[in-house]
Amino acid sequence: MDLFNGNEFNILSENVQNCVLCPRMCNVQKILNRSAGFLNAELMFIGEAPGRLGADSSGIPFHGDKAGHNFEELLEFANINRSNIFVTNAVLCNPRDENGNNSTPTKTEIQNCSKFLEEQIKLVNPKIVVTLGGVALESLNYISKHDLTLRDSVRTANKWFDRLLIPLYHPGQRAMIHRSMANQRSDYQFIADTAKNFTKKKNKSYGTIVNVGVVAIINYLFEKKDSFTYFALHKLFYLIEYKSVLKFGFRLTNSYIVRQKDGPYCTELHILKIKKALSYLDSKVLSASNILIYKNASDLFSGNLNGEYPELDKDVKALIDEILLEHGNKSNAALKRTVYFSRPMRNILAAERDNNINLYNTPISFTL
């Protein structure tokens, strides 16, 4: 199924947006869009519901809050490329209590949304379904009965609905009390190992990824320059990846990059994740739509901070230097024009025009 022309998915997404079955959630954002991922994915992850500070804010499943950061870290640990998977939730709206905090969806709300979950599973037709938490596991009973429990069946592969079902704990902080991060890393490695036995012909849309590491690239950027706007950082990172495809024939990382209103957005460059990974960075708000990321004054001349971060290959450094020389001092407006004229973005814009659809949050393909 072509991500650009996924008419069945378009219809399903529209039906989700028009749903008013649950009284406390009928007027909130519904989180089912193209950022869910690859529509022919062999691996589907199902969570509980969009988090208030996560998907309900970012529009991207499992992105933006602590659970999302943990999920992305676990995928990276197991070398599971988010561009090749599909991520959704048992309930597609954020349930909140009377104080506006995240709340557990009721059984009625789970049942109401189960028809949409079943449609997603049938549409994507994954070989492996991974549930994240007890609510997600229980929600599958409304589609096809099973007798699995999270406690007894965690990290096991079970036949269900003509595919494999693997229950895992939720990556949120509360679940870490019951399932440590170390155990969850092993869980995700189990997923990766199991998936290898069900691999079809590789999806060529994203090329061969060598995965030099997002942090290593961002660290090198700040070795060369003391500050970047948050906007520019995303656009320069995209241009580095695109240049790598043009020059080497493959991407450098397994980062997940989607098309948003102002161009490419990389989930691995969420501002809180950057500042956590690179402790020498700080930020300040320049305007409502502009944030400056900069090195702390004490670290202006520190370079790689005594080799704390991985050293890049000289060819990769040379490529990044080329991008910085050509685009590093451009204004945000000029950078936006530059990325919009690149082939991957032109392909998306052409698909939007030809199909009269909005492709915001569509994963960007680096096909040559």
From TrEMBL:
Pfam families on file: SocA_Panacea, UDG
InterPro entries, per database record: SocA_Panacea, UDG_Type-4/5, Uracil-DNA_glycosylase-like, Uracil-DNA_glycosylase-like_sf
Keyword Transcription among UniProt keywords: no
Residue ranges of domain Uracil-DNA glycosylase-like in the record: 34-186
Lineage: superkingdom: Bacteria
The entry's keywords: 4Fe-4S, DNA damage, DNA repair, Hydrolase, Iron, Iron-sulfur, Metal-binding
Gene3D superfamilies: Uracil-DNA glycosylase-like domain
Range of residues in the leader sequence: none
Name this polypeptide is given: Uracil-DNA glycosylase
Species, as recorded: Mucilaginibacter pankratovii
